[in-house]
Amino acid sequence: MTDSAPRTIALAGATGDVGGRVVSALARRGVAVRALVRNGTPAAAQDAVRACGGTPVAVDFADHAALTDALAGVECVVSVLNGLEPVILDLQGRLLDAAVAAGVPRFVPSDFSLDFAKTRPGDNRNMDLRRRFMARVDAAPIHATSILNGAFADLLTGQAPIVLPRFRRILYWGDVDQPFDFTTKDDVADYTADVALDPAAPRFLRIAGDVMSSRDLAALMTRLEGRAWKPFRAGGLRRLSTLIRIARALSPQTDAPFPAWQGMQYVRDMASGRGKLSPLDNDRYGKTDWTRAEAVLAPTV
After folding, report:
1. What is the pLDDT of residues 255-272, one digit of tens each?
2. Does the bond joining 199 to the residue before it have cis omega, within 30 degrees of 0?
């Protein structure tokens, strides 16, 4: 590599929401992004990758030789794949094997979650998949770095809201003062780009754009709206666990990675404190513009 040649990072999952943001963050750093996409990926999706600054590389993920060739010469493979066992274990496992075969020195698995290494096996299906892949990547001759970011901050206003504007309540389970970790997708992508370029990155890095309890969130919304908000305790963790079992039993089988009961499992891991991130590594790359919960919630008022 000459001094003028750009550094090259390979990324799987570039057509997804977070993946596209990571491509953009790497491109802003002048990095050549080799975006691995499956054969047959629609032209519009590939154009979107190009618009973010990446170069789509269509490959058959089941073809070990072709996948290995696609990774030749890259310094790190970043996985932002999203799914269940066929994706997190099988497809991502093939990506890992190809990275090892290609002599890639570093691998960033698709973890991007609360601290799954501290959660209880069996409590959270998606965290169990990450735990199983962790054992596989740790046994491979490659240096891995997992980025743990808590909940994506859109949880505050998205499909599993804990902020209830209609009732001016903050929904919580268990302890009203249990701190939660929130990080926006853009901040996660920005940090991931720095990790991908850091040959000395440790095995785990933990980040949070903001850390707030349910009581803190109620006070914040009161200040933003000028009307009183209150925490609303829906029950203890035992009740939440019972509701999870009922919801899972009544839900139809689905390949969706985030059915309602899965979101409830994630909330339980937050409310129990078992998934709490500590210590935080926010300062490792000098990033200071972390998006706080106030910036996420202010537009909703």
Report:
1. 888 899 999 999 999 999
2. no
Residue whose tokens read 């054992």 = 135
Please enumerate in sequence order all residues whose Cβ is within 8 A of that of 280, keeping only pairs 6 or more positions apart, or say none: 206, 207, 208
Three-state SS letters, 39-71: CCCCHHHHHHHHHHCEEEEEECCCCHHHHHHHC
pLDDT of residue 3: 56
Q: Give the tokens for residue 265.
A: 């499992």
Cβ count within 10 A of residue 205? 23
> For the residues 193-217, what does the mean pLDDT come to?
98
For strands 143-144 and 106-108, give the pairing.
parallel
How far apart, in whole angstroms, are the C-alpha atoms of residue 194 and residue 200? 11
Instruction: Judge if the upstream peptide bond of residue 105 is cis by omega within 30 degrees of 0.
Output: no
Tokens of 139: 């046994």
pLDDT on residue 1: 47
Mutual angle of helices 260-271 and 125-138, in 10-degree steps: 70
d(CA 177, CA 174): 9
User: In this structure, what token pair is assigned to residue 180?
Assistant: 């939660």
Q: Is the pLDDT score of 92 beyond 60?
A: yes
